[in-house]
Write a structure and sequence with these properties.
Largest sheet: 22 strands, antiparallel, barrel
Strand content: over 45%
Distance between the termini: 35 Å
CATH superfamily: TonB-dependent receptor, beta-barrel domain
CATH class: Mainly Beta
Helix content: under 10%
CATH topology: Maltoporin, Chain A
Shape: globular
Number of helices: 8
Structural class: mainly beta
Number of strands: 37
CATH architecture: Beta Barrel
Length: about 650
């Protein structure tokens, strides 16, 4: 970053107001008026919205960042629940904690959303999507959600957006130890420990989190409770070999054992196709790791990054009438070089050019095949090249463009592109942003080759899905910079959408739909300091997502929103919060009749309340109530959801 960029005062003031609200750090809004040093420090906040980190004010894409501080204040325990507050995001959980949890962006499918944890792609190779049922919040520093097609930067599975999870890192020249424990309804127990430390040239963080619950009955039939047990271990570190060269790495291990119930497909049964009590379980083991070397040359004007990553997932399920399971692995190698330069005489501008090359191999094996062909190990390779340009002009106009070429050994080679821009009006506290791009999603191994039960027949002739999308929006500071209002309009067009079709003999197979699946909508956000120490954050989404036939896509509510209020008291030693999420009426598939029909899932409001208090400098106590109104609702047809629950615990720091 140039001296010119670091030292400008007034533009930084306006920019940080936007950044602070965007990132959910509400106290920063009130600090701006009194402390210029605080403003300058916060203006350095960066997000990983492209091939390189960039200050939030310079990003032209629609994005939201949730900080660890915000998650802490609202006592959020699962990432999926945090994402319910993000504009444009829809979450569907099959019953209890630990159940399959899908996240969709702007009406997409779950496998159209790329999920990264510390830069490692964690989506399963079998289904092409990440199951958020396993992702605890315990060790997370922030969550970045980038909406709109991002395949030009990140490749396949980023057709609708990217969710980047960044875990907590170490500290230099010292150490911190944080421990937390809580108990609650349904015999729920949580414990997690985070150790952070380091020296002058290195830092490391190690964490462990265990959460177990007896759960509740996710079926309308019977009384069996469906619980979940989750162990998550995470490690992260960096070592500066020289002033210009450093290595970093991260490892993550998740072991999960979840109870579930099956659908009764006994023909003639009074509960046909209904979710019924069964002793079914799902066990999963996930291992993610990555490491890289960064070499900075010519006073950081030329930066090279070499990186390798691996992701491995194993799933085993015991269901009525048999077993199922799969093993998947993804290996990823990449090189990236970025050259930065300035041309102050030409539009007072700064530029960066990035080139990258990536190789990736995905493997998949059906552990319990119903036919010889299903039991074969499947494998596919990809080689991609990326070029990205960033430009800054007069410290207020920012543009980004990228193009990517992917060579697939199993599908047609693809070209994707993206462009975005942002413009600041510092004297008016206004920021404009817009983006356009294309995305591509390859068929999953499940869709190509099928899985147990054998009634699902794979289709090896599927084509990749392609997406084109654009958006335009504005953020506006108001009320003497105590609030920021944002609104974004978007449109997307999905071609060759893959959807499962059912035959009269109760078999099913995925096919590419003819025509265009259209999505459009409006995303609204608001951050406001209502009075001293009382902060409000709100979001609303209108979504119109239709299949080529004109029918509304399932599990995509046309209307959704959220409202969070936090209040600090007793010199901010304590905090109380109210967190409300609204999910509008939507449809889902009902398989209990033939042909399959669409059932309507009613709208609901889920309200959580809680408080914490810092008893001493090292001890905090807290408690919360979830689903305060004891709402009875469904996110997936036939699966019950959690009712009124209460939790209490403490956090200790050393």
């Amino acid at each position: 970053m140039s001296t010119k960029q670091c030292c400008r005062k007034k533009p930084a003031l306006r920019a940080v107001l936007f950044s602070s609200t965007l990132l959910g750090i509400f106290p920063a809004v009130s600090a701006v008026a009194d402390d210029t040093d605080t403003v300058e420090e916060l203006s350095e906040i960066v997000i990983t919205a492209g091939r390189n980190p960039v200050p939030a004010e310079k990003v032209g894409r629609a994005l939201t960042v949730l900080t660890g501080e915000e998650l802490e204040k609202t006592q959020t325990r699962y990432v999926a629940d945090a994402l319910r507050r993000v504009p444009g995001v829809a979450v569907s959980r099959t019953g209890s904690f630990g159940g399959l949890t899908q996240v969709r962006i702007r009406g997409s499918e779950g496998n159209h959303v790329l999920v990264l944890i510390d830069g490692v792609e964690v989506s399963g190779t079998s289904s092409g999507e990440f199951d958020f049922g396993s992702l605890q919040v315990a060790d997370i520093d922030r969550i970045e959600v980038i909406r709109g097609p991002q395949s030009a930067l990140f490749g396949s599975n980023a057709a609708a957006g990217v969710i980047q999870i960044i875990t907590k890192g170490g500290v230099r020249n010292g150490y911190n130890v944080t421990g937390r424990s809580e108990v609650g309804t349904d015999k729920t127990v949580l414990g997690n420990v985070l150790v952070q430390g380091g020296g002058e040239t290195y830092d490391v963080a190690v964490s462990g989190a265990v959460r177990g619950t007896e759960g509740f009955n996710i079926s309308d039939y019977g009384s069996e409770k469906d619980g979940d047990r989750n162990l998550t271990l995470n490690g992260k570190g960096r070592w500066d070999i020289t002033d210009d060269v450093y290595v970093d790495g991260n490892l993550r291990f998740v072991d999960r054992d979840s109870d579930t119930d099956d659908q009764d497909f006994s023909w003639g049964s009074p509960t046909y196709a209904k979710v019924i009590d069964t002793p079914s379980t799902v066990e999963s083991t996930e291992f993610f790791g990555g490491g890289g070397l960064t070499w900075e040359l010519f006073e950081d004007r030329f930066v090279q990054k070499f990186r390798g990553e691996v992701a491995s997932q194993k799933y085993r399920g015991e269901i009525t009438g048999g077993e199922n399971g799969s093993d998947g692995k993804r290996t990823h190698l990449s090189y990236q070089g970025t050259f930065a330069f300035e041309t102050p005489q030409l539009l007072s501008s700064a530029h960066s050019l990035t080139g990258a090359a990536e190789w990736e191999r995905e493997t998949y094996r059906n552990v319990y095949p119903s036919s010889a062909s299903q039991g074969l190990k499947q494998e596919r390779d990809l080689f991609g090249t990326v070029a990205e340009y960033r430009g800054e002009f007069f410290d207020r106009a920012f543009v980004t463009g990228a193009v990517r070429y992917d060579q697939n050994d199993s599908f047609k080679n693809t070209v994707t592109y993206s462009a975005s821009g942002a413009y600041l009006f510092p004297d008016f506290g206004t920021r404009l942003h817009a983006s356009v791009g294309t995305g591509s999603t390859n068929p999953t191994f499940f869709e190509q080759f099928g899985f147990v039960p054998s009634s699902f027949i794979g289709n090896p002739n599927l084509k990749p899905e392609t997406n084109f999308g654009w958006d335009v929006g504005v953020e506006q500071n108001f009320w003497q910079d105590r609030g920021v209002f944002g609104i974004t309009y978007f449109q997307e067009r999905l071609e060759d959408e893959i959807q499962t079709q059912f035959t009269p003999n109760f078999e099913s197979t995925p096919v590419n739909l003819n025509g265009t699946s259209k999505r459009r909508g409006i995303e609204v956000s608001l951050g406001l300091e209502v009075i001293k120490n009382l902060y409000a954050k709100a979001a609303y989404t209108y979504l119109d997502a239709k299949e080529p036939s004109g029918e509304q896509e399932v599990r995509r509510p046309p209307h959704s929103g959220s409202l969070s209020l936090t209040y600090g008291f007793h010199e901010n030693r304590g905090t109380v919060f109210v967190d409300a999420v609204y999910n509008g009426e939507m449809t889902d598939f009902d398989f209990s009749v033939s042909p399959t029909r669409r059932a309507t899932l009613g709208d609901y409001i889920n309200i959580n309340v809680g408080a914490d208090y810092q008893v001493t400098d090292n001890l905090q106590v807290f408690g919360r109530v979830e689903n305060l109104l004891d709402q009875d609702y469904e996110e997936v047809y036939g699966f019950n959801t959690q009712g009124f629950t209460a939790f209490a615990g403490f956090k200790a720091t050393f």
